[in-house]
Amino acid sequence: MAVMGSGETLTFWLPMLYQKGTTFIIVPLKNLGKQMADVAASLKLTSASVTCNTLTKLLLKAIENHEYRIITISPELIVDPHFWGLWKQKSWCKGMDQIIVDEFHCIDGWGGC
């Protein structure tokens, strides 16, 4: 485990520069998701930070149309019914490159198993 801010997330940024599909980054904190979306934008990668405050029909439609390369999202929202329809569509999933869980060591505290 690295100290926060030491650059450990850079390990998953490099492949995103060369891939063409969508990457979901699951983050435990809204401000961390926003920060990552801002970094992606600075790298000229279209990005969205999805939170309960930003989730709209317009944003969902943009995600469905693969308008964003990088999407940061909370663990709770990634399993929200709004996204289940997308996860079930093989054609939509073909546009996915990867799903990354940042701060994985915190997963126990997220209320899961």
From TrEMBL:
One of its GO terms (molecular function) is nucleic acid binding. It holds the Pfam family DEAD. It comes from the Eukaryota. PROSITE patterns: HELICASE_ATP_BIND_1. InterPro entries: DEAD/DEAH_box_helicase_dom, Helicase_ATP-bd, P-loop_NTPase. Residues 1-113 form the Helicase ATP-binding domain. This is Helicase ATP-binding domain-containing protein. It comes from Hydnum rufescens UP504.
